[in-house]
Write a structure and sequence with these properties.
This protein is of the alpha+beta class. It is 25% helix and 30% strand. It has one domain: Fumarylacetoacetate hydrolase, domain 2 (Alpha-Beta Complex), CATH 3.90.850. The chain is built from six helices and 13 strands. A hairpin with a 3-residue loop joins strand 12 and strand 13. It is globular. It binds hexanedioic acid and magnesium ion.
Length: 259
């Protein structure tokens, strides 16, 4: 973006304010030739603003790791974002619809790490760093008008990350490569699928996560949560809705949507 660092800082402020105050903004790429590198720099600057307000980094999310997700938003590259403690919603808890612009939810698999991971790692090395796995729900909320964006826009907007709920952790002695799952709204299935939709096996998402963060001088830390990406298309949230995901062998995870 014309290489102007202060310009990126201003975009970070705009993205952060939009997320914090839940208002929609125009796409940055409508008026700027933002590169993917610029966009990740904006994301980092935006998350630094959260850190300055006291939010603590607790992990990262992988995005667009399934065909269903790519098709839904018209972007066909994997992306990633940063998770903070303020984004975590207690299992069974209630979110406020008014705290989001146009939230959606998607079923995911979460990894809890017991050792750091960075750079090029094998699937076996990635699995060896996993302490536990759990079913999860990601609440995504693009801050762009009409949920429309180009690749650099969504990256700058922390890859739409805005909340996540994690179910019961269990030891990773279960092969998570092809677990059937369903996303239910008010008890009715609205999406069904399998963890195999996540890059063929969710561990591939963890391998990719280690490689992608290393490009930005980061590593996945012990104690972090890594969301492997949506296994189905996302479903819009409405006040009063009860949301649950059931995952074969891993149980359920749920939350409610308030006003
Ligand atoms: O898979 C994801 O979490 C992608 C989030 C970015 C695209 C979207 O907002 O749906
Ligand atoms: Mg997701």
């Amino acid at each position: 973006m014309n290489g102007i660092v202060t310009g990126l800082g201003e975009l970070a402020r705009i993205a952060d304010d939009a997320a914090r105050l839940a208002h929609a903004i125009p796409q940055f790429t409508d008026r700027l030739a933002l590169t993917v590198d610029d966009a990740y720099a904006v994301q980092a600057l935006s998350l630094a603003r959260r850190a300055a307000r006291g939010e603590r980094r607790v992990g990262m999310k992988m995005g667009l790791t399934s065909r269903a997700k790519m098709a839904q938003v018209g972007v066909d590259e994997m992306i990633w974002g940063r998770l903070t403690d303020a984004m975590q919603v207690e299992e069974g808890g209630t979110i406020r619809r008014s705290a989001y612009v146009h939230p959606r939810v998607e079923p995911e698999l979460a990894f809890l790490l017991k050792a750091p991971l960075a750079g090029r790692v094998t699937a076996a090395q990635a699995l060896a760093a996993v302490e536990a796995v759990a079913p999860a729900l990601e609440i995504i909320d693009s801050r762009y008008r009409d949920f429309k964006f180009a690749l650099p826009d969504v990256i700058a907007d922390n890859s739409s990350s805005s909340g996540f709920v994690v179910g019961q952790w269990r030891r990773p002695d279960l092969d998570v490569g092809n677990l059937g799952l369903a996303l239910l709204a008010d008890g009715q299935p609205v999406q069904v699928g399998s963890t195999a939709a996540i890059l063929g096996h969710p561990v591939r998402s963890l391998v990719a996560a280690a490689r992608l963060v290393a490009q930005w001088g980061e590593r996945l830390e012990a104690g972090w949560i890594v969301l492997a990406g949506g296994a189905t298309a996302a479903h819009p949230l409405a006040p009063g809705m009860a949301v649950r995901a059931d995952m074969q062998g891993l149980g359920s995870v749920s939350f409610q949507v308030g006003e």
